[in-house]
Each structure stands twice: as structure tokens, then as C-alpha cells.
């Protein structure tokens, strides 16, 4: 039972990005402290919650610093691709990010992908426990509608994507 000599302990897994085989640059992952997945924090479930995250000057400054870090590394910046969940509060985050990109880089293209999960026949997201009670259905509908409206307004091209035909809305 002893580990062979020179073997290392497996790295601890704390974030979704820790599951990736490709290691991400530390500046490409930003942890939102108010909505940690392993703490006693609430979930980011409403469009307005996501939008208000980028009203915080510290969060906005951190996002701009990380963005400028990558933009300065580009030889010829052609544009941006934004992948955004539409069904939860991240649609509000994506809306503010695309607005920031449009304001700061108005001559560059912004291709935005609005993503929604697949619902099974019983109303549970495939792979996640997410019951479809009336309040969750309302939040999903409003987040998706507001996300589509805001993301398409601030993007050069907006493409909603889902493996179901209804964008995950019942």
C-alpha cells in the first residue's frame, strides 16, 4: 500500500477549472467570493445579481486589469469571443462584460455565445439537480430573455446555443 518513491499527492480540487487537463493561466480564472460553491454563500440566480457584481469598483478594476493583461499580449487584436450562461445570473455578468468590451474596444468584433443547459423530461438539468419549480422557471425565463436582449445589443454577433430546441425553457 505505500506510494512509490517520488510519487506526488494528487492536487486538491477546489474549482471547476481544477478538473481540466489543460492548466489555465492564473489571470484567466476569477473567483467570485460572494458566490463560492463550497461556502455558506447564496447562488448567483438572477440577472440583476450578475449585473450588480460589476458595479463593485474592486471587481470591475480586477476584470479590467485581467482583460488588459491579455490585450497587451496580442500582436493584432481582432476581437473577442464571450461564452455566457443564459439561464442564471451569469447572463447579467456577460451583459456587463460585453457592454464594457463594446465601450472600450468599439472597433473590434465581439462574438457572443449564449449557452443553456439541456432539461430532461422531468425538468431536471442533465447532470445537475435543478428542479423546475415555478420560481426557478421564472428566473430561467427572465434571465434568458434579459440575457438575449442585452448580449445581442452589445455584440457584433450573438448566437444562442442549446442541445434542446427550447433554449432550456419550458
TrEMBL record:
The chain crosses the membrane at residues 110-130. InterPro entries: DML1/Misato, DML1/Misato_tubulin, Tubulin/FtsZ_GTPase_sf. It comes from Sylvia borin (Garden warbler). GO terms for cellular component: mitochondrion. The keyword Cytoplasm applies. The keyword Metal-binding does not apply. GO terms for biological process: mitochondrion organization. Keywords: Cytoplasm, Membrane, Transmembrane, Transmembrane helix. Residues 10-162 form the DML1/Misato tubulin domain. This is MSTO1 protein. Gene3D superfamilies: Tubulin/FtsZ, GTPase domain (3.40.50.1440).
Amino acid at each position: 500500500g505505500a506510494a512509490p518513491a517520488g510519487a506526488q499527492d494528487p492536487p486538491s480540487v477546489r474549482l471547476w477549472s481544477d478538473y481540466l487537463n489543460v492548466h489555465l493561466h492564473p489571470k484567466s480564472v476569477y473567483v467570485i467570493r460572494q458566490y463560492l460553491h463550497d461556502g455558506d454563500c447564496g447562488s448567483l440566480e438572477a440577472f440583476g445579481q450578475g449585473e450588480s457584481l460589476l458595479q463593485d469598483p474592486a471587481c470591475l478594476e480586477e476584470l479590467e486589469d485581467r482583460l488588459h493583461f491579455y490585450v497587451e499580449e496580442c500582436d493584432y487584436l481582432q476581437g473577442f469571443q464571450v461564452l455566457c450562461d443564459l439561464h442564471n445570473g451569469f447572463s447579467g455578468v456577460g451583459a456587463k462584460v460585453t457592454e464594457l468590451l463594446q465601450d472600450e474596444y468599439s472597433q473590434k468584433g465581439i462574438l457572443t455565445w449564449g449557452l443553456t443547459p439541456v432539461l430532461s423530461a422531468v425538468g431536471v438539468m442533465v447532470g445537475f439537480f435543478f428542479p423546475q419549480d415555478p420560481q426557478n422557471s421564472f428566473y430561467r425565463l427572465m434571465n434568458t430573455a434579459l440575457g438575449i436582449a442585452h448580449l445581442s445589443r452589445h455584440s457584433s454577433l450573438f448566437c444562442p446555443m442549446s442541445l434542446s430546441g427550447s433554449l432550456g425553457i419550458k
